[in-house]
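Risk mitigation, structural track. In case the binding assays with S-adenosylmethionine fail to produce interpretable data, a predicted complex structure has been prepared as a fallback.
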Amino acid sequence: MQDVSASALIPLMRIGDELGLFNVLGRKGPCTESEFSNYAKIDQRYAREWLLAMCAAGYVSHTDRVSKFYLTEEQKSVFAFEESSAFMLGAYDILSGNIHNIDNVREAFKTGKGVNYSDSHPCIFSGTARFFRPSYSANLLEKWIPAIPSVEKKLQDGCNFADIGCGFGVSSLMIANAFQNSKIYGFDIHRPSIENANKEAKQIKINNAIFKVADAENYDGEFDIITFFDCLHDMGDPLGASKYAFNHLKNDGTLILIEPSAADDPEENFNTIGQMYYAFSTMGCVPTSKSQKKGLALGAQAGPTKLFKILENAGFKTTKIVKKNATNMVIMAEK
Ligand SMILES: C[S@@+](CC[C@H](N)C(=O)[O-])C[C@H]1O[C@@H](n2cnc3c(N)ncnc32)[C@H](O)[C@@H]1O
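Fallback model:
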């Protein structure tokens, strides 16, 4: 029942996000339901029912006899403020997008074919960026890059960096902003994501990042660092992509792979994070991979042994996990 109740909130979370309800409450609360509906410019009866559902979930707080509603500092950071590193609403873009994708994926279950990433509901594209951004902003510059000092030094001195499968370019733009001597290239096969990345770079005035539409096996250039953020397992041919990266890395170059944290043995992934990743993987990663050449369908929870094997078969000599947290592991590989 707890899981059913949590799933029942999915449409309410999307509506709350799209109408800016959490943000209004975060800025204006404590307020009565009537004040809230005026601030948010929504009907009072819907406002009341939404607020009560959120209180029942513990996502919104209330004063005595439920006369006023507000968000605690913790609730604000999870629900109200997009720039917070605890922000979780992006997950609901993906959850809603996956529901929209049911018809395509159900047919793929029967045929064994794939579903093109570009045929996903647009919620998936924005959701991927919004869901990963908090984790990248908490970890990338402060923990993951410093875990590989040679990479940090090259970025500081100025180097060529390629981010493959960059999507909206969240990771690429963080790196470009922090290391302005370096030139950052983001490549992805999905044109609307690349357009979004270039638009964002322009808006935030980042001049050292360039985004281009390219497959993981057809970009140009020679790089000091090549990264794959949460995308190698989405590719039909991760070995082909790793070999291509090997051939486009300088001899002393480094490949960095960010993948979901997972154990090799599926039973060890039978936990809250594993439940989410196996579900996301069934609805997104496996169909995307199967829609491409080879269609290896590694899955989001491939585990380190399979990933190391791919990198070693691609030619990399040293492979190791340099960081791991509840959601992600960072693997580095050198020639
Ligand atoms: C889960 S998203 C991750 C996006 C981004 N790296 C991030 O962390 O926000 C996977 C990305 O891989 C891209 N992708 C899938 N197959 C690809 C391929 N063969 N070549 C290049 N990009 C690919 C998709 O278009 C999508 O943007």
